[in-house]
Amino acid sequence: MAESTESAQRAQYLSFSLGGAEYGVGILKVKEILQYEAITRVPSTPRSVRGVINLRGAVVPVIDLGVKFGLAETEVTRLTCILIVEALLEGQPTVVGVMADAVREVIELGFDDVEPPPSFGTQVRVDFLLGMGKVGKRFVLLLDLDRVISADEKEFAEAVRDGLPEAEAPAAEGAAGDAAAAAPEPAAEAPPAP
Questions:
Q1: What is the mean pLDDT of each run of 10 residues along the chain (194 residues)?
Q2: Which of 19, 54, 74, 135 has its CA 20 to 30 A from that of 99?
Q3: Domain boundaries, the chain
């Protein structure tokens, strides 16, 4: 009985690296992990919104957490990936992509393994953090994705969810003709060949 209570108090997080730090998001928020692909930039979006991708016919905004946290734009390498996550947008689940330098591992943390967010010393705003997870001798910054996604990004994600104007939506995979011609040019940032 004590074992089932202990496992009920444990939570899993997907850890990833970004700008030399290690972050974690609740595993239940992560829908899938994609190898980096070219992102279509959309004019007049918040700086932290890198653009959009076509995910099986759905337009998904991609957020660059490096920019969001006041760091440099995330550099694209062969390890760069996009985490497809679900964040709450005014109480409604919304799918967004989040860029990461690399995915690390799934970690399991108990209640005693999580410390309160530090009041100083991190590049991330304290209100973006659920806490700091202790994994062996290292710490993982646990993100509250619902808070990380700001009003500007939520507005853009809502516009995507409600349907971007045709001229701004990326062409569906395999579509030809007018739809492909109307889509903005993809950003010239394909990952280097391995």
A1: 58 94 95 94 88 93 91 91 90 89 94 84 80 92 88 68 52 38 42 47
A2: 135
A3: 2-182
Q: Enter the pTM of the model.
A: 0.74
3-state DSSP of the chain:
CHHHHHHHCCEEEEEEEECCEEEEEEHHHEEEEEECCCCECCCCCCCCEEEEEEECCEEEEEECHHHHCCCCCCCCCCCCEEEEEEEEECCEEEEEEEEECEEEEEEEECHHHEECCCCCCCCCCHHHEEEEEEECCEEEEEECHHHHCCHHHHHHHHHHHHCCCCCCCCCCCCCCCHHHHHCCCECCCCCCCC
